[in-house]
Amino acid sequence: MLKIRMSRGGAKKRPFYKIVVADSRRPRDGKFIEKVGFFNPLLPKDKKERLSLDLDRIKFWLSQGAQPSERIARFLGEANIIPMPKQRNNPIKALPKKKAQEKLKKAEEAKKAAEEAEAAAKAAPVETPAAEVAPAETPAAEAAPVETKEGETK
User: Fold this and answer.
1) pLDDT above 90 covers what percent of the chain?
2) Torsion of the alpha carbons at 57, 59, 64 and 66, rounded to the nearest 10
3) At the N or C end, where does the chain have fewer CB atoms within 10 A?
4) Helices (H), 11-79
């Protein structure tokens, strides 16, 4: 199966891509059939030297059954050679994973329980008996000073 894809070149941290037609079983930077353009991601998007496509050859290879990669399909869609592919966005990948979901669930349940307890406390105030509210700390007999035989007070 033929693919129209990018083959990386350039130095470390300075990528430069050739757009090639290659057998899908070949390695990314391996042997290819034909070079049909290049892409330099380091240049600004408004520069024409950023992307170059040989549109006639690409149309020929598409007619022969070559399948463009996702990035190349976007380039070809912008050049109106093929219909623009749908934007791929998988919101499921952005969701928290299993353990994080369990933690969130526990936190939510704890929050609900705390709110319910608070609501119950506000709805029905607890009445306490008067004896418990103001207990006599010291009986009246103990409060008075005690006199001893010798007339000293303690």
Assistant:
1) 62
2) 90
3) C
4) 55-63, 70-78
Could you tell me which CATH number the domain at 2-78 has? 3.30.1320.10
Per the document, the length of the chain is: 154
Sheet with 67-68, strands from edge to edge, namely: 51-53, 34-39, 14-23, 2-11, 67-68
| Contact assessment for residue 33 and residue 19, using Cβ atoms and an 8 Å cutoff | no
Assigned token pair, 16: 């430069």
Q: CA-to-CA distance for 57 and 95, rounded, in angstroms?
A: 42
What are 22-51's pLDDT values in tens digits? Answer: 999 999 999 999 999 999 999 999 999 999
Map out the domains of the chain as residue ranges.
Answer: 2-78, 91-117
Neighbours of 30 (CB within 10 A): 11
Find out whether 64 and 57 touch, Cβ atoms under 8 Å.
no
22: Cβ–Cβ under 8 A, 6 or more apart, which residues?
2, 3, 5, 7, 30, 31, 32, 33
> Which run of H or of E encompasses 100?
helix 98-123
